[in-house]
């Protein structure tokens, strides 16, 4: 997931700003000053996906540790 997020971030940055410099473009980009515009939502999504990817990594580590423990127990 981290790789997908990284590639997506690079591609979005390469696309540039999908809004204009007029009032509607600024509102699209910034919202009503409440982080509900494009940039605030993008940051929220990136943070959420990064946190979930980290959580999945922790789960994977725990599963590997549990499997190794069970395997060693079976060998006794």
What does the secondary structure layout of this molecule look like, with pairings?
Layout: H1 2-15, H2 23-30, H3 38-75
What does this structure look like?
By secondary structure, the chain is mainly α. It has helices at residues 2-15, 23-30, 38-75. It is elongated. The two termini are 37 Å apart. The mean pLDDT is 91. Residues 16-39 are annotated as: Disordered. Residues 23-39 have a biased composition (Basic and acidic residues).
User: How many structural domains does the protein architecture include?
Assistant: 1
Shape: elongated
Low-pLDDT windows of residues: none
Number of helices: 3
Euclidean distance between termini CA atoms: 37 Å
Rg value: 20 Å
In terms of structural class, how would the helical and strand content be classed? mainly alpha
Q: Which bin fits the share of residues in helices?
A: over 70%
Tell me the series of helices and strands, N- to C-terminal: HHH
Percent range for β-strand residues: under 5%
Reported for the largest beta sheet, the result is:
none
Q: How many individual β-strands?
A: 0
pLDDT average, as an integer? 91
Biased composition (Basic and acidic residues): 23-39
Region (Disordered): 16-39
Keywords:
76 residues, mainly alpha, 3 helices, 0% strand
Summarize the structure.
With 76 residues, the chain is an all-alpha fold.
């Amino acid at each position: 997931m981290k790789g997908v997020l990284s590639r997506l971030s690079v591609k979005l940055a390469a696309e540039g700003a999908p809004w204009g410099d007029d009032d509607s473009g600024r509102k699209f980009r910034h919202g009503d000053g409440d982080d509900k515009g494009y940039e605030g939502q993008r940051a929220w999504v990136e943070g959420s996906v990064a946190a979930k990817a980290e959580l999945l990594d922790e789960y994977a580590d725990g599963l590997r540790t549990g499997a190794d423990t069970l395997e060693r127990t079976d060998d006794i």
